Amino acid sequence: MTALATDIGGTFTDVVLVADGRLHVAKTLTTPDDPTEGLLRGVRRVLADAGVAPASVDRFTHATTLATNVILERRGAAVAFVTTRGFRSMLALGRQARVEEERYDLAYSPGEPPVPPTRTFEVPERLAADGTVLTPLDEDAALRVAERVADLGVAAVAICLLHSHANDAHERRLAAILADRLPAGTPVVTSSEVWPELGEYERATTTLMSAYVGPVMGVYLRRLRDRLAEVGITAPVHVMESAGGVLPAGLAASRAVYTIESGPAAGVVAAAREGARHGLADLISFDMGGTTAKAGLVRDGRPGVTHEFQVGGKGSFGGRRPGTGVPIKVPAIDLAEVGSGGGSIAWVEAGGLRVGPRSAGAAPGPACYGRGGTLPTVTDADLVLGYLDPDGFGDLRLRPDLAEDALARHVAKPLGVDVVEAAAAVHDIAGAQMGTAVHVVTVRRGVDPRGFTLVALGGAAPTHAAGLAERFGIRRVLVPARCGVGSAAGLLHADLAIERSRSFLAPAAAADPAALETVLADLEAACRADLALGDARRGRVTRAAGLRFAGQAHAFTVELRPGPVTREVVDAAVQEFYARYRASYGIDLHDPAELTVARVRVSLPAGAPDLRGTEPPRPVPARTRRAWFGGAFREVPVRERAACVPGERFAGPCVITEPQASLVVPPGWNGVLDDHGAVSLERAEDP
Hints:
The chain is α+β, with helices and mostly antiparallel strands and 687 residues long. Strands 13, 14, 15, 20, 23, 24, 31, 34 and 35 form a nine-stranded mixed sheet that branches. The chain has a six-stranded mixed sheet with strand order 3-2-1-4-11-12, with helices on both faces. The chain has a four-stranded parallel sheet with strand order 6-5-9-10, with helices on both faces. Strand 29 (623-629) and strand 30 form a beta hairpin. It is globular.
C-alpha cells in the first residue's frame, strides 16, 4: 500500500508518504491564502523523493484546522437558524461567563451571537420532554418562515427545536418545507441528525456550527480533490475527525462539526501508537508546533475522549471556561491547548516579559527565518541558546544574527539585560506556559503525571520536552522518529470511524435492557450506513452509555460490555460509573444513577502499511556546539539522528538533530536509540 498523509498547521504543513515500507517526509511553510498551495508543494516533494507515481497512491488522509479557524475568525457561511416559538433569543442569551480581566471590566459587553437576530426565526410547535406532541407543527407558519429564509439568500439553514432529541418528526417535516423553498443543494441541518442529545443550547450551537462550517468545508475539500487530481492523485480523500478516526470527504463536509479538532487529534493517535510499540500504556502526548502547544492523555493505551468542548473562549492554565466560547457536543480527543509554540512572539509590557499567544505564523515567521519578521519568538530564543542548528530547519537556513537583533531590540533592551539572558527568559516562560496544558489534562483531572511517559511530537516539542518533564517529576520522555511530522504520521494509522448517539433517559435500576439494545442496534445501523459498510461483520463496534447521579446535569460516558444488553451489563456500567466518579472527584458515592444517552462508534481499521526499520546510519563527523545549560554556555556534543546506530546511548548535556526537529538532552538525562529511530530519554539522578 502507498499511503499519503498531510497535516496543515498554523505555521507548517507536514506531508508524509509511505511507499515500499519507507517513510518520506516534507515540511513546508503553510500558505494561509490558499492552504492547498503549501500542501501540494510538499506532496510533489515526497513523491519525487520516493520516486512514486501519483496514480499509485492508494490512501490519502488529511488533517486541517479549517473548521476551527472558520469559527474563530467568523468567516463561515451565511446561516439562518430556526427554533421553537419562544426560544428565538436562545443563541443571544447563551451561557455567559467572565474570566480573568473581564471580571473587573465595568464596560464589559458580551460577544455577538453566532447568527444575528435578522436571520433567526421561530415556528409554532412544542414537544414535551419525552417527545409527546403538545402543539403540532404549524405548517402554514413554517411555510412563511421558509419564504423569508429564501429571500435572505442564505447558504445553509440550521434547525433546533425543543426536545427534538426525543422526537424528530417536527424537525424532519420543517426541514422538508424549507428545502422545498430553497435553491437545490442548500444544506438544511437538523439537530436530531447532528447530535440528538439533552441540552437545547449546546445542541443548537453544535447544529449551527455544522451548518456554518459545512459549505466552507465542502468548497475546500472539492478544491483539494481537484488540485490532487491535477497532480495525478485520484485516491479518495479521508479527513481526520476530532475523536481520532477519519471520515470520507463527503461525510466530513456534511458533518463538518466533527472535524473541529482534526489536527490535534492526530498527534494523540500517533503518541498512543508509539507508546504501544514500546509497551507503554500511560502517556502524555505533548505536541508543540509553530503556533500552539497541545497536551492529551492516553490511559491504558487509549486516548481520552470528551463529548463536549469549547471552541475559542478564555480561561486560565490551559483550559477554556464554559460560557466564553462556542460549546460543541461531538466526540473529541480530550486536549488542552495553549498559545505557546515556536513562533510565539515575545514582548515586554508594563515591565514584564510576555510570550504568546500572538504568533509570527508562516508569514513572516520568526526573525531568524529571514523572511521579513522582526519580532522575537521562542524559535529565535532557542537558536540564540544553541539548541537549534543554524544550518537549517527543513528547508530553512536560520539566521542567529537576526534572532539576536530581534531579542536585543524588543526584549533585552526594555528589560535591561543582555541578549542571552533575554533568550533564556523567553525559553523558560514558554516552558512554563506549556506546562499549564499538561497540568490541565493531569493534575486538574486528579491524575498524578509522575507515572506517565511524555511523548514529544511536533517540530518544537523535542527542544522543550525534557525540561517540561522535569517540571512534573516525569522521568521518561519518548521522542519518535520523524517527530517533527508526528501528527501527519498519526494520520496513517487512523481508523475510518463514525459515532452516533441518541438520548436514552431512564433510572439505571429500572432501565429496560431490551429498549436500550434496540436503540444501540439502530445507532449501529446508522453508523454502518454512514461508512457504507454493508457487511454487518465488518468493522469494530464500541457501545457506551452516559450515566450520572439523579438530579445532576453532567454525565460520564461508560463503555458497555460486548454482546447484547442485559441487566448484568447495565449493572456493571453503573459500578464503572461509581469508580469513575470516585477517581475524578475523590467522593465515594453510590446514590441512584440514571442513564442519559446511548452511544455507538463503528470503526474500520486503517490497514496502514508497515514500516521497515531505520535506514543504515551514514557517517557524519562528530562536532560540538555551545549551548545554554545550567545558567551558562557549555561545549556539548551534537549528533545527527541519521548517523546514530540502534542501541546507541546518549548522556546529557547534548543535542540530537534531524531535519524537522532538535532534541535537547539536559544534564541528568540519558537516552537510547531503538530499532525504529525513536529516542527514549530517562531521568537519572539529579546532576
